[in-house]
Amino acid sequence: MNDLVLHATMAMRSLIRRRVALAVLVLFPLVLYAATYDALGRSVRSLVFGISWALSTVAFFAAMSARETDPRLRLAGRRPLFLAGARLSALLTLAAVLVLVFWLVVVIDRDVRSPAGVGLDFAVTAVVAVAFGSAVGAVLRSDLEGTLVLFLFAGLQAVVNPFDSWSRLLPFWSSRELGTVAIDGPEQSSTAAGLLHAAIVVALCGAVVAVGAAGPLRNRHREWRQGFEGFEPT
Amino acid sequence: MRNESWIRSFDDALHAQGLAAPDRAELVVEIEGFLDEGATMALDHFGAPDVYAASIIELHHPTRRPSPDGPALLAATGLHKGFRGRTVLDDVAVQARAGEIVAVIGANGSGKSTLLRALADIDPADRGSIAIAGSIGYAPQSGGLDERLTPVEHFELFGGTRGLSRAAARAEGLRLAHDLAWEADGAPLAGELSGGTRRKLAVITALIGGPDVVLLDEPCQGFDGASNRCFWDVLSDWVVDGRAAVVASHLPDVVHRATTVLEIGEVAVR
User: Which chain B residues are Cβ-neighbours of A218 within 8 angstroms?
Assistant: First the structure.
C-alpha cells in the first residue's frame, strides 16, 4: 500500500506541476459554460463537453509522460498494472477535485432540476474521460495525434443527435444521457442506460490500458524464461 | 587552450609518468580522431591534460580494478533485430561476469542502443535468448526521466521500487550524485537540469538500489572531464563489488576503462 501511495503521489506531483495546463483545464469548461450561459441545458452540456475533453487530454498526456519512466520501473520490478493503477489513482483524485468545483459552480449559480443528477453526470464524465484518455495514450505515440483524436470524439459528442442509434458508439454518450436526465427529467433519457454505457466504455478502455501495459511484459517473460533455461552462471 | 597544445601537454604528461611510446601514440591517435569527429574542445571535454593523463596512468596501475573473473550475470546469444527490412543486430552475443565492465562500441547506427534495449527487454530482440542472473538497472541514451519530478523524487521512486525506504533511497541517491561530482539536494526539476546533469540522474536511477547488472547507454554524454573520471571510478567500484556493467559509448576512453570490448559485428576481448 505504501508503494502505491508513493507512486500515486509522484504521479500527482508530476500532474499538478503542469501549471499552465491545469489552468486551462479549469478555465476551458468554465469558458464554454459562460459562453452558452443563456440556455441552462446548453450551458451545462457545454461544461460537460469541456470536462470530457480537458480530463481525457490530461490523462492522455500523463500516459505519454509515463512512457519515459514506466519501462525502467517495470525493469526494476514494478508490475505494469501497478504503475497504471497508481497513475489512475492520481488522475481520479485530480478529477474528483475538479468535478466538485464545477458542480458547486453550477448548483450555486443555477436553479437546476436535479443537483444530484448534475453531480452524477459530472462524475461519470470525469471517470469516462480519464479512462478514455488513458486508453488513447496506450495506443497512440504522438502528442498531436492523441490530442486530435480526443478532440474529435469529444467534439462529435457535442454536435451529434443523441437519439441517433450510432451516437451510442461514442465514448461520451453517457454524459449526454445523464445530463438530459438531470436537466430535463427522465422522460426522454435513462440514468440506468447512461450508467451502463459508461461502465462498458470504462471496461473497454481499461482492457486497452491493461493490454497496452502488459504487452511488453508478456514478450519479456517468454524471452527471459527461454533464456534462463539451461543457463547456469559459471 | 587549443587542441594541439592540449594533446602535446597530454603526451608530455603521459611520458613524464612513464607510459611507453606505443601506448602514448595509440591514446593520442584515438583522442585526435574523437576531437576531429565531434569538433570538440579537448579542455572542455577531458579537463586539464595533466589530470586526465594521471587518470589514464591510474588505469595502468590501479589499486582496485574491475576484472572479469566472477560468475556470469548476463549471457545473451544469437540476438537478431531488424527494423523495416534492415538488420540491425545479426547473431550478436554478449556475456558479462561479476566484476566486469563490457564496453559496446561501433559506428553510429551500428545497433549499440538497440542491443541495450534488447538486453533490457524494453524493445525485445526478434530472436535469441537472454539470461540474466539477478536484477537489472537501465539508463537509456536519452530521456527515461519524469521532467516534472526533482532528482530526489526520482531517487525515492526508483529506490523505492528496488525495496529501499524513502530515506534510504534519498541518502543513496545523494551519495551517488556526490560521487559523480554533483550535489543533487535541492536541485530543480529534471526538465530544468542541464543535459550532462540529466545524464547523471539517469545513471543514478539505474544504479540506485544495487541491481546486479546495469546497462548504460552513452552514460557520459555531456559530462565534463571531471565528471567523466568520477563516473568511471563509481562504475569500477560498482562492479568490483560483484556486479556487472554493459556500457555503450562512442567516446574513446571507454575501451581503456572497460575490461571487455564488444564491437558490434565482432567480439574482441582484451
Answer: none
- Which residues pair with residue B86 across a beta bridge? B83
Count of C-beta atoms within a 10 Å radius of residue A177: 26
Helix (H) or strand (E) holding B229: helix B225-240
Which of B94, B121, B153, B170 to probe the A interface (max A CBs under 10 A)? B121
CB contact under 8 A, B162 and A78: no
Closest CA–CA distance from residue A47 to any residue of chain B (Å)? 29
List per-residue pLDDT tens for chain B, 270 residues long: 788 888 888 888 887 766 767 777 888 888 888 888 777 788 888 888 888 887 777 666 554 566 667 788 888 888 888 887 888 888 888 989 888 999 998 888 888 999 999 998 888 888 888 888 888 999 999 889 999 999 999 999 999 999 999 999 999 999 999 999 899 998 999 999 999 999 999 999 999 998 999 999 999 888 887 888 888 889 988 888 889 999 998 877 788 788 888 888 644 444
| ipTM confidence | 0.83
Q: Answer whether A14 sits within 8 Å of B124, measured CB to CB.
A: no
Give the C-alpha separation, A25 to A23, whole Å.
5
